[in-house]
Amino acid sequence: MLNLGDTAIRQVKASSRPPRKKAAAPQPVKVAVRAVQLFGRWLRVSRRGVPVMSGCACGFDLAIELGELDSMILEFLVKKFDQAPRIQAFIAPWLAPDQRFSQGLQNMLQVFTTSDHGLSDVEVSEILDAMEVSIGSIESYHG
User: Fold this and answer.
1) pLDDT of 40-86, one tens digit each?
2) Which long-range contacts does 134-141 make (Cβ < 8 Å, 24+ apart)?
């Protein structure tokens, strides 16, 4: 007995297009490019202060300024990488009192665009991942 269903399926398969090749996965973004992208995001976010009271009925709103945001993110990074002494040693100078309120985060991102930062690409990627989460949360807060 002839099964027409199987015959028809074989004919359709035979006449159909060959399977497409899967597209190659995109190359990972280089560390320097990620640092520049994150630097741009940080500049946009940091131009405004983050409102603390969100339009309090009293008629004024306090805001966290750029230097305070810098130090908050840098302190978060130090705590996050407490088990990574090389990363902590790299971040520590950016928390120095003379750097604390003078664009420490921006300066650190600029250093990542060069190859003389002394960290591996994996270590820098881990730092950038953590910074991206922090900056992203500030961006989402601003709306």
Assistant:
1) 888 887 776 555 555 544 444 444 555 677 788 888 999 999 999 99
2) 134/73, 134/76, 135/38, 135/41, 135/42, 135/45, 135/73, 138/45, 138/50, 138/69, 139/41, 139/44, 139/45, 141/50
